[in-house]
Amino acid sequence: MAIKTMEELFIHELSDIYSAEKQLTKALPKLSRAASSVGLGEAFDMHLEETQGQIERIDQIVEILGIRLKRIKCAAMEGLVEEGKEIIDSMVEGPVRDAALIGAAQKVEHYEIASYGTLAAIAKQLGYKDALKLLLETLEEERMTDEKLTRIAEGGGNQQAAQADERG
Fold it and tell me: How far apart are CA 85 and CA 116, in angstroms?
């Protein structure tokens, strides 16, 4: 069915990110187990809890607006999750794989930031004030997670990977 209205676009985009978040809840425990750095593993575990809260916010938006989500699969997240799986399967455990996992996780965060930013703009245009508040809360969490991953990388994760290269 062709999308003709902003409301239909909002529902489509909300359905897409809902699928993305659900896929992410399955992927994050795998990323956590694959991380050799305790701090990185803990960051993935913490993001899993946040992601579950973000799914609950989407459920709240659905209830507030009295809408129904479409049953779609987010192809973008499917690809990003597959990239993470390939990193785990093709790299030896250690700082280099951790650096790659951080990069993969940041790709996910950037996708989510773009998605929630788009949804917030549409919600604002449609006058969905309560939904907008919830979307902006999630958007801020996604930005904070991205910043946390950057700090982990800059705080020694990527440096350890570079030193492993020099020894390797």
Answer: 24
